[in-house]
Predict the 3D structure of the following.
Amino acid sequence: MSAITNALLAVIEWIYTIVRNHGWSIVIFTILIRLVLVPLDVQSRKGMRKMQKIQPQLNALQKKYANDRAKLQQKQSELMRKERYSPMSGCLPMLIQMPILFAMFGAMRAVANEKIVEQVFTFLQGETPVYESWLWVKNIFMADSFFASVAPDPRTIQMITNDVWQKVFATLQPGQVEMIVQNIQQKVPEFAGVLDFTTKEALQTSLPGILTAMQAMPSYMAQIQPLPGWANMNFFLFTLTVYKHFNGLLILPVAAGLSQLVMTKVNPQMSGQAQVPATQGASGAQAPGMGNFMKYFFPLFSVYICLTSNAGFALYWVVSNLIATGMTFLINLYFDRKEQQAEGVIHQEGTVK
């Protein structure tokens, strides 16, 4: 994992030692992250408002120097220097947030993979795991969806890499390992009796016996049982299954899409709709169309990501969007009042004169 991912994971785990729930740990962590980014958000909104103020002048320059691109760029640069505006001021928060988003995805995937392997070993010991829930989500480490079972399904288990298996396996007591091996041998007579996760090849040797043994356990199979008639349904490019013991109500993926849509309304730079100095040529003409595409692409993309990721990451995405939207509203309100106060002062001075 990257240094950023490790740092975020360390903070989340520290919060977890206090609240003892990963769901609420993620909520608190997200609030802290958004508070840290407040100065950048303020600077971004300040830059965007200044851009809106000088946009009529930029449009006038574009008309005046429509046939002289070099002159247009020169005059635009002079205007922006005069107004102390930097085109990067509106993009800086997003440029910082994107690495955090990717690192958070990696951090939550790392936590989820370890917890899923722990749940697998619990099943293999003949016990049923106690899942860590959050509100309506039964297992925070699986997706919040009707299309995800509360227990990790075989496809999810197969996607976990050998280093995660080895890390969790190393925490087991000798008696636990012996019980796991015995239970696998009872279900799978051809099992060699040795579990090895030190390499990818070793994992591929051990994994078939693990999955076969689990699929012979009624307690496990009951938790990944699809609803009759709702298994492997084809929808365009997707194959979906509705589970009898589904993990969530699909609230977080839908909320991610809706909150992303609202955020692109109040934060145009998030969808590429923020007005920037345009120069003559095809790129300037394509900007509105690209902005409209991104406005709807991000919400749909966020639904897909949260639908296929664990609920912990989806929770981070939703809470981050909601806080960012609320902060934008408050920051805009702050600047509106400052401008109204400034206009009032100017008006009073003019009256006195």
